[in-house]
Amino acid sequence: MSNRGRLTFAVQFLQRGLGTWSLAVTTLLALLLAIAGGLTLSSAALDRRLRSEIGLIQTLYSTPDFQGPPLLRRRVSTLDLSWIGSDVNPPTRFFSVRWEGFWDVRHDGTVDIYAGGDDQVLVFVDGELVLERNARLGRRTISRTLRLAEGVHRLKLEYVQHRGAARFNVQWAPSGERARPFVPER
Q: What are 109-164's pLDDT values in tens digits?
């Protein structure tokens, strides 16, 4: 084979090779686009599912120590002692309630947390007890300032009722601002 024949053969070989390489790159790009599209769709589906499950899980116990089978377990959008809409006949003394969920803090910095009640209130953020209000304080509200990073934090609130009236109130505020309820939609 002459040099010209070898050169022609080499060029044809490279053109075929580049065509195969080009096909592989095109296939890979199409696959990546399909994956990105699928992730976008699944992200939207996940967002819809999360929005349908907004709220805190409220669990009511007939004992003041969170023991025994729960009388009620449901998703709620408010922090209160109302059992409206449930078929539970709740006790009026010696019970406990726990709310668990997530709190989306929309700013970096300090927040004030307030807890009031007539018996015991515990507030946990990211698994750490950050505020404890006990029955010896009477009906006084207490507060604590926390430094929290922007983002989602695990929230758990507990209330224990022993005797007398059942009063419970937990709120928060960016430092220096007016107190507001914990809103599970956030």
A: 899 999 988 889 999 999 999 999 887 666 788 899 999 999 999 999 999 998 87
One-character DSSP codes across the chain: --HHHHHHHHHHHHHHHHHHHHHHHHHHHHHHHHHHHHHHHHHHHHHHHHHHT-SEEEEEESSTTS-SS-SEEEEESS-SS--TTS-----SSSEEEEEEEEEEE-SSEEEEEEEEESSEEEEEETTEEEEEE-GGGTT--EEEEEEE-SEEEEEEEEEEE-SS---EEEEEEETTSPPEE--TT-
37-63 pLDDT, tens per residue? Answer: 666 656 655 554 544 456 899 999 999
